[in-house]
């Protein structure tokens, strides 16, 4: 590993640990509201429907890279909101995804994990079309190499009437000094280089609007935390759901 990569990994892991703690607290009520409808969804799969269960696929099982190999405990923070006994497929680009949960089984003990997939969100080719009731992706589009491809895959694997739940940080909508900083940090490549491909200047709403979902509902919220100054660079968030 080069010196730059070592510094990057150390910086990113330190930031991510603090970020996850603060972000989790700041977004708790928003996530509770976002995922509350899961308890009332009915599966397209008649077997699951008869049992009152649903099938969920989550892309990017943590907010960012799952650094289980570095001992960071914040992984799979959305899973606690899923209905008990949900059938889940967990997708993340990190090779330690499965080993993390094998070492921390209590984090998924209320769920039935059907599959762990080491993959990016734009490549779900092994997941059948129209097979998933819910896709969850939070803080995924900011670092996606091809946002359009990720959204096309989400729409493909969803069953008709299936739901895509999202929570993404986005660039400021008004031409403020913060928006200028976001544009500069992203365009320079500095922020993506340090924070695992994350971009501060993306407009997730426009991308999702173009993805041909049948229904779309979202809102903007602001998240700030003085204890994590870097979090304030990504304070505007898009939260909502889309229906296939």
Automatic annotation (TrEMBL):
Domain Methyltransferase type: 79-166
Pfam families in the cross-refs: Methyltransf_11 (PF08241)
CDD domains recorded: AdoMet_MTases (cd02440)
InterPro entries: Methyltransf_11, SAM-dependent_MTases_sf, Thiol_S-MT
A molecular-function term among this protein's GO annotations: S-adenosylmethionine-dependent methyltransferase activity
Annotated protein name in UniProt: Methyltransferase type 11 domain-containing protein
Taxon lineage: Eukaryota, Metazoa, Ecdysozoa, Arthropoda, Hexapoda
């Amino acid at each position: 590993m080069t010196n730059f990569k070592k510094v990057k990994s150390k910086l990113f892991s330190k930031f991510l640990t603090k970020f996850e703690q603060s972000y989790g607290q700041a977004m708790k009520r928003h996530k509770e509201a976002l995922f509350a409808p899961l308890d009332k969804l009915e599966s397209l799969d008649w077997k699951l429907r008869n049992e009152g269960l649903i099938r969920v696929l989550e892309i990017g099982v943590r907010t960012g890279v799952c650094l289980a190999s570095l001992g960071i405990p914040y992984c799979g923070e959305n899973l606690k909101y899923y209905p008990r006994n949900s059938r889940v497929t967990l997708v993340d680009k990190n090779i330690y995804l499965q080993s993390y949960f094998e070492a921390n089984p209590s984090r998924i003990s209320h769920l039935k994990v059907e599959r762990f997939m080491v993959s990016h969100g734009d490549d779900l080719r092994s997941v059948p079309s129209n097979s998933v009731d819910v896709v969850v992706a939070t803080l995924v589009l900011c670092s996606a190499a091809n946002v359009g491809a990720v959204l096309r895959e989400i729409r493909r694997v969803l069953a008709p009437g299936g739901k895509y739940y999202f929570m993404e940080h986005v660039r400021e909508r008004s031409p403020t000094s913060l928006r200028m900083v976001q544009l500069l940090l992203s365009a320079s490549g500095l922020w993506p280089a340090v924070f695992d491909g994350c971009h501060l200047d993306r407009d997730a709403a426009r991308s999702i609007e173009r993805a041909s979902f049948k229904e779309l509902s979202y809102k903007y919220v602001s998240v700030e935390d003085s204890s994590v100054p870097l979090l304030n660079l990504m304070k505007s968030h898009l939260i909502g759901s889309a229906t296939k």
